[in-house]
Amino acid sequence: MPGEGSARELEGRVALVTGSARNIGRAIALALADGGAAVAVHARSSEAAAKSVVAEIEARGGRAAWFLAELTDPQAVRRLFDDVRGTFGRLDILVNNAASRADAPIERISLEEWRAITAGILDTAFLCCQAAIPLLAESGRGAIVSIGGVAAHCAIGGRSHVVAAKSGIAGLTRGLSVELADRNITVNIVSPGYINTKRDHIPPHFQDRKVPLGRPGEPEEIAAAVRFLCGPGARYVTGQAIQVAGGWA
């Protein structure tokens, strides 16, 4: 995987990273920019945070622009991709990172809450993939990487709606990897374990888990895996789920 000092293997490419104003999304945007890609930084409503990530990229010598969009709205998604193409002229990489999260026992999840979580995770990935495919096909070396979750591969409680949606992302990845292969678009998923991010509390399903490597991961470790899958060294890798979880799963 690329690391500090490696070549700018993504030079000339354009990446859209959804939900990239903070945490893992921010780290991915910075990593792809360090690899030479121009980056579309997306947020739902956090304009100041999105602008801050763009400023970080530009301070490191990269190129970026920020965009706001509600990704559960099909029209807003179409406008986002039109705006990205209008700004950069192309799209080569889509990283589906935007997601909704919540903790609740199954008995207390209302249908509305279930739909909100699954829409915020699975529907947004579907809509973004659908909008991105024509642009990625034009690229000739398109890449889709979705951020899943190790919870989709492990038995945990209190997040059944999140687990169901993240499992759906894994299924979408497998299906698209076959469907888009003839357009030279690779489709993979990176599944983080417990990552050091800004959060109000440690989710209950992490508190009793012992990670074999003995520590939480860092956003930059997720970003490194994503950068690899977007690069020229991973053009024969598709339909794969890579767990970056310290051996948890």
TrEMBL record:
It comes from the Bacteria. Pfam families: adh_short_C2. InterPro entries: NAD(P)-bd_dom_sf, SDR, SDR_fam. Belongs to the short-chain dehydrogenases/reductases (SDR) family. PANTHER family: 3-OXOACYL-(ACYL-CARRIER-PROTEIN) REDUCTASE, 3-OXOACYL-[ACYL-CARRIER-PROTEIN] REDUCTASE FABG. This is SDR family oxidoreductase. It comes from Propylenella binzhouense.
